[in-house]
Write a structure and sequence with these properties.
The structure is a homodimer. With about 375 residues, chain A is α+β, with helices and mostly antiparallel strands. Helices cover about 25% and strands about 25% of the residues of chain A. Chain A starts with a helix and ends in a 6-residue tail after the last helix.
Chain lengths: ~375, ~375
Amino acid sequence: MTKKLLSFILACGLSTAIGLAQSPFTPAWSNLTGQEYPQISPDGQARVRLKAPDARKVQVAGGDGFTKTPIDLTKDAEGYWSGTVSNMTPGFHYYWFIVDGVQVNDPASVAYFGYGHPTSGLYAPTPGEDFYACQNVPHGMVREHWYFSEVTGQWRRAYVYTPAGYDQNTSERYPILYLLHGAGENERGWSLQGRMNFILDNLIAEGKAAPMIVVMDNGYAEARGEKASDNPQASLARRTETLIDVYMKDILPTMESFYRVKPGREHRAIAGLSMGGFQALNIGLTHTDLFAYIGAFSAAIIGGVMDNPSTAFNGVFANPEEFNKKVRLFWFGVGSEETTFVEMANDSRKKLDELGIRTSYYESPNTYHEWHTWSRCLHEFAPLLFK
Amino acid sequence: MTKKLLSFILACGLSTAIGLAQSPFTPAWSNLTGQEYPQISPDGQARVRLKAPDARKVQVAGGDGFTKTPIDLTKDAEGYWSGTVSNMTPGFHYYWFIVDGVQVNDPASVAYFGYGHPTSGLYAPTPGEDFYACQNVPHGMVREHWYFSEVTGQWRRAYVYTPAGYDQNTSERYPILYLLHGAGENERGWSLQGRMNFILDNLIAEGKAAPMIVVMDNGYAEARGEKASDNPQASLARRTETLIDVYMKDILPTMESFYRVKPGREHRAIAGLSMGGFQALNIGLTHTDLFAYIGAFSAAIIGGVMDNPSTAFNGVFANPEEFNKKVRLFWFGVGSEETTFVEMANDSRKKLDELGIRTSYYESPNTYHEWHTWSRCLHEFAPLLFK
């Protein structure tokens, strides 16, 4: 075995990145080094392939913008199953194979954490958009920041973006954005799938966004001695309470004493996507003393909360004039094709408007409940902060 | 679809972490949150499980310390395939399922980058060892550091560990260790599989190792305009040349101007595992003007290089006395069960000894060519640096 290993070590990496001349299909830029498949065409098709000579049935599936229903693949003489996905929407999509009924990731893809487990992903073409590309500009960093949470009694890991120059300009202080991920994902989602570091690097380099620190923490938390499984029904509300507690007692104090943060609520923002958007609304609207900027990406105020607007979120909407002065930005963003979320966001905004609460709105064209919606949201939202 | 998504978002995370009272098998601590399987017993057995009602044959396989040959699993009435792996060696092991001939990762596991693609992994019990655990000590950080490589013409990503206190003690300078990963892995391997940050956090907190900066870069590099596929035969040597070039022209200048590094060769070390060990020997031994400490984990000097010791590595062994004075530590580490590597390391050391070159040696008990060997190597090696 070890001799086999040795030859593997010596041979490894001699991968063949086969160029496919004259084909509109080229390996996706997001493939692992040297992987031929998936291949992408400029008009948003993807050719996928998996070797499975002994399988009886292989399909490819993924999120809404990839394909709404699984697509059957066909097998060639060498045992490769392949097929073409048409009409992908722009940007990042999760995808996977289904081999004889079992979900299988593509060995040619990075494994992104989505749906509660590692999942393959690719980037479809985004004509005219390079806001999320790694460009020739000064780059910030993303740090894995471990800290002990008194609320949960456990060590937790945050990902923290510090902008270019943070390490050199040691007397400069920065505003801070808390950026929350969605359900089934984790604290690495925003930097890996969402490419938030490149989005901010580019915006900051163009002078369109203020250099800022961004904290991305895990959206799940259980208080010491509690288990979600003890009471699943009560768990969601309880978990939200716990998460707010973690933000107030652990995350904000830890991050704002460690990093050189500008003091004061006008230098502090919170935003999130989907589950993280609901959480950002909960945390932000109950703590407008702390946050001057609130963003909900693919999220809204739901569940009858607005039936009693004067008591909602500890009465934050009771005095609209004061709210509008205090909360400098109350921002909703959605993808045009995620119709339920579009409706929810519009319903929230309508009710808020009736109260005299000012909101802002952005709709990402031709995207679903998926990362390109949220990358675009960040790209639209970040320039509005800390002005 | 979006309504389904919404209920997923609201329900997500209400996972059931079922406790198994009276069983010596408990969910592995390395499982994703709430996942029951794999389960581990204190004596190094693992129970694995995968739902695949329509599959005809399911096996579990992995590296040498996990199982030498694939193990057939058996199916229950609900379509779960399960089985037990016996006699695992301590520490981290890659593993995977084989479903009707296709390699399938465990959805209950983090996907670690190994064998050139995402691969499941678990930690077997390590009785009496907690050197790699996240302990209640001050923690350093691991940063994703993007930089432009003039040699390759591309942006590259390094992972950089800065020790606890680095951000606060802004006038302090630190020694630096360049730590290289193995074949089929990447720049994240040392911090994720290898838990190098916790190992160093613990050693530094105990006063056993000097606070140091550790740079972990990618071990693959192709010069501008070159492709490994152009000439696979010549590629290994050429790639090693290119990688040395990347270290000299890109990595060292970038890292040592960005981070507060102590100047001088006596504050600079290089080490690596397997392929990275061969690379560290190549880089270190051809640049003893830069490195005072050299470590080879599961690696050795091979391929007839020692047939002409006076010219090997630009003649670095020609004057043993000078070498021994200059290179303060020339360290080899292996796992006791990876016999080919044990032989290679001992052969190298014998030849070096005959020349009068001083080396050090460590053998990790009961481990193969795998991460626990290398985590232990780092744990032994780091305290010897920068004394």
